[in-house]
Amino acid sequence: MKKTLLLITIALTAFSLAACSKEESTKPAAQTTQAAAPATTPTAAPTTPASDKSGGTNGTVVETMNAAGYTYVQVDNGTEKIWAAAPAFTVAIGDSVVVPDGMPMTNYHSKTLDRDFPVVYFVDSVLNASAPVPPAATGTKKPEGHPATTVAATPIDLDLSNIAKAKGGLTIGEIFSDKANLSGKEVVLRGKVVKFSPQIMGKNWLHIQDGSGDEANGTQDLTVTTNMTAKVGDTVLVKGPLTLDKDFGYGYKYKIIIEDAKVTVE
Q1: Which residues contact 125 (CB under 8 A, 6 or more apart)?
Q2: Which of 94, 128, 162 is a domain's end point?
Q3: Can you give the CATH number for the domain in which 151 is found?
């Protein structure tokens, strides 16, 4: 009997020691797992787009740069400064621009510029209001704070006296006079380019004059948008649909404009 009790005691002691040994051997593994956990935590938030569009504003460009086919502008609207980016366009520090609503990219890193931006609003285009200055006589209302500007007068050495009316076409004065009936219809005219602004909102902007119309009433100058190029002084044949009361937003309105015109330099 004593021998049996002794054997039971030895067995229990051995089992207890084995259990303790097993428990201690598992503790370092648990501690190692906990120590490794922080290594899996991201060191920085990934660049992701916000869910809502915003950022629409107008103001003055205080910084600009080009990268990978995009133009970046930092715009000061008097209250805050925001960054916006659009397909490459012509702009300079001090220009007044209109930025439409766009998709904000937070924590954005530009590899080309090697620069981090807290937020950049990517938009289809930015209107450089300092380039295609809308004629005051066509009803343009400039955004608050926009610098005083006027449409460039016809250059002194630009002769408009010998411009022949296009075959089957109209003069600028006639287009203004009959604009209500011509709305939405294709018109043809010949004139000279008195101002050319490339790649604004993805288009080239021309101001055309032919010597007709009334400068005092602002009916001597017609705005045209096109994907074709020309230079100041060129005589051009313009063909395209006439649009009335065109509103590009933020107060930029035209009582009359020809959009996406076919322009032929003669």
Answers
A1: 86, 87, 89, 100, 200, 201, 202
A2: 128
A3: 2.40.50.140
- 3-class SS of residue 5: helix
Cα four-point dihedral sign 149, 151, 156, 157: positive
Residues contacting 72, CB < 8 A, separation 6+: 64, 65, 66, 83, 84, 85, 110, 113, 120
Number of domains in the chain: 2
Prediction pTM value: 0.51
Give tens-digit pLDDT for 187-243: 999 999 998 877 776 788 899 999 999 988 889 999 999 999 999 999 999 999 999
From 146, 47, 151, select the one nearest 103 (Cα to Cα): 47
Structure confidence by residue, pLDDT tens digits, 81-111:
999 998 888 899 998 888 888 888 999 999 8
Query: Quick one: 218 and 155 in the same domain?
Result: yes
CB-CB neighbours of 205 under 10 Å:
21
What are 241-256's pLDDT values in tens digits?
999 988 766 556 788 9
133 touches 96 (CB < 8 A): no
Q: Do residues 208 and 124 share a domain?
A: no
**Cβ atoms < 10 Å from Cβ of 247:** 10
